[in-house]
Amino acid sequence: MTLRGASRAAAALAGRAFDWLSSAPTRESARVRARLVDTLYERKAFVWFGSVSVLMLAVSAAVLTDEVWPWYWLAADLALLAFRLRVIELCEKAKVAHAPRPVRRLMAAGTAWCLVLGLGSGTCVIAGPPALAMLAGVNVAAVVGAISSRNAATPRYAMLAIACVSLPFAVSTLFSPIPGAFLVGLQFPLHIAGIVVILVRNYESHVRLVRAEMRNRHLARTDALTGLSNRAALTEALAALCAGLSAKGAQRRESFAVLSMDLDGFKAVNDRHGHAVGDALLVRVADRLQRGVRPHDQVFRPGGDEFVVVMPNATPEEADYVARRLIEKLSSPFQIGTEVKASVGVSVGSALAPVDGLTPDALLAHSDHALYVAKRSGKGRYLPYAAAL
User: Fold this and answer.
1) Residues sharing a CB contact under 8 Å with residue 273, sequence separation 6 or more, in sequence order
2) Please, are residues 188 and 140 in contact by the beta-carbon 8 Å criterion?
3) Secondary structure of residue 348 in the 3-state scheme
4) Each residue of 258-315: pLDDT tens digit?
5) Would you tell me how many other CB atoms lie within 10 Å of the CB of residue 331?
6) Around 301, how many Cα atoms within 13 Å sit in the side-chain half-sphere?
7) pTM
């Protein structure tokens, strides 16, 4: 195997290892797992406080021992602090842009920092001054406790970090010149076992909170009647797509279409047969709309008898085809129960980004304008914004 092949194999193996460490030990959905991993970079204050306490410990070691090694420790901690803060910044930007987060690099840097802390604290214990050993023990205990809270959402990775911090310290107490220090090393595994139990409990609490957060978020973004995404979700989806627009992106077919739709004849059905039939009709309309769009398109119900379809990576021709397909699908009568047969139609107006707008408000306003012109010219019509002008 060549050197390049060996490096690729090692990188792939390391990647699988970090994927396993970041995965949840219990069976969770992909969205829950992703949300748990996001917590790794959401508490920047812990990174600052941990590094500041280590810097103070390294300076104390340099003063009490008058040796060179604490300064190397200090330099390593500063370098890791700068790297971790940079990777956290990249993770935050990637989250906003809905891009992959460099979580592997963040986990690798965190593991390295924990290992450096463990080795440095262990050296403090072996160095001899009791005050320095006490400071090292306090720092190790504080960091282990912080890991059990901060990294509880990824317990496998948290256990690795705890091991990197505590094992060098525990082993060093067995070789320390301080009388009775070995007793700390003998009891340390018991304390770590207790921390792991707390870690598992914290993980269970994290999972419950994430599930509740996602459930509430789903309810807040979902239309209760049809099950479609609502106006809040529409605004969020358009904002995400608009954030990814660029001149080069448009050339790479990253443009998208917004179809605004309004039912024709719905008010007459609602007035004649009542709101119960009207609600049932809206549910069936939503079902036909979902079956009439492309697999990666999304249908929204902002309210009333209005619907919006967002079509990522769509050309004008694709928007035209989908709009006319939806008009055709809704032209067939709807059977509501055994007695009511309702007929409605739909008018459609569209706007294409970035040609017709670069913001959610502009795109919705322009597609609504095209819809208004289409309805004014006759029912069951489709009109793009350019033609409406």
Assistant:
1) 336, 340, 342
2) no
3) strand
4) 999 998 888 888 878 788 888 888 999 899 999 999 999 999 999 888 999 999 988 8
5) 13
6) 20
7) 0.65
